[in-house]
Amino acid sequence: MPRLRIASLLLLFFGSFFGSVTLANNVPLANVAQAQGSVQFSSGGESWREVTRAKYLFEGYHVRTGSSSSAEVIDHASGRARVLGANSVIAIRDGAVVLVSGELSEPGEARGDIWKALENQFAKAREHTRLRHGVRQDEPVKVATSGAITVSQTYPELVWENVGPGYGYRLVVDDDAFEVPIASTEEMIRFALPDLAPGEHAFMVQVMLGGEVIYTPRGRSTLAWLSAEENREYLSVEKGLREDSDDDAFVVAPFMGARGFLVPAMDSYRSHFQSNRGDNDMRPLLIKAYDDLMLFDLKQKEAIAYNAILAAEED
After folding, report:
1. Half-sphere exposure of 263 (CA within 13 A, CB side)
2. pTM for the structure as a whole
3. CA-to-CA distance for 16 and 233, rounded, in angstroms?
4. Higher pLDDT, 39 or 125
5. Distance from the CA of 118 to the CA of which of 59, 111, 146, 166 falls in 20 to 30 A?
6. Number of neighbours of residue 48 by Cβ within 10 angstroms
7. d(C-alpha 229, C-alpha 225), whole Å
8. Which DSSP symbol is given to 88?
């Protein structure tokens, strides 16, 4: 699917969702893709690492190429891509892509506002990186679920926080109850819904102990189950987006999240960070994904990791 087509499709989902967000200073300003040969990046121009996938660049970042090497550099402000030639260096300065040495082609065709949408979401995600204080052990046993979520035959899972290994759960969807056995020590409980009638359904998660309900939320959340046709239409757009972005998690997951598929969006981020544990700059997006799903313990763990790495880099 052409890039401009993907851009317009994304705007249908991102436009109103991100329109009112004020950008923070520290957001991704460009990204490197389609690296060929030896392409390296540095956060300050001293320590260099290889670019092995799409790499997002912040203020002060540098990228360099070796002999017989090249990379595509996309400036998020303009949405235009340029090719960085062999033996070349660029830097992100004052929010712009600046050629330090070597060759950087003229900008290509604009690709719409995809990257601005990502920057807007990233700015909002950074608000969730603050560490939570207090002792959770003193809090009553309870489970929270996202207020609204989308599910389908392709993505049927709901998730919630595990309050402890001795507890079980009862998921109530409309008038139907599903018993979830006593959990293990996993921090997150997953439940794959059976096929539901298309449309909205009310749901809640009760906490069980010894066969008795010990916690019932005051209100119910809402899930929207897509019809088979709606699911096919959504998957067609998602497939094109994956192909167009080389399955870039930071393009695909925000699209999923904007459409209400919060669980697969979280899983996309989790998969990325399992393979790229050092990509701390983009970790706020995973932290926000946990917050969207009310997975507060996992959110706290990632916030601790994020802030610890930041502190270590400043020393």
Report:
1. 22
2. 0.84
3. 21
4. 39
5. 146
6. 13
7. 11
8. -
Q: CA 241 → CA 15, 75, 108, 228, 248, distances in Å?
A: 17, 19, 20, 20, 9
> CA 8, CA 14: separation in Å to the nearest integer?
10
Q: How far is CA 212 from CA 104, 206, 208, 250, in A?
A: 67, 10, 5, 42
Q: How many CB atoms lie within 10 A of CB 36?
A: 13
Buried b (16+ CB within 10 A) or exposed e, 95-134: eebeeeeeebeebeeebbbbbbbbbbbbbbbbebbeeeee
Strand partners, 75: 30, 80
Residues with Cβ within 8 Å of residue 137, at least 6 apart in sequence: none
Residue-range domain boundaries for the chain: 3-128
Residue 135 pLDDT exceeds 50: no
Residues 303, 130: contact at Cβ < 8 Å? Answer: yes
Residues 6+ apart with CB under 8 A from 241: 1, 6, 9, 10, 251, 252, 255
| Residue 184: Cβ within 10 Å count | 9
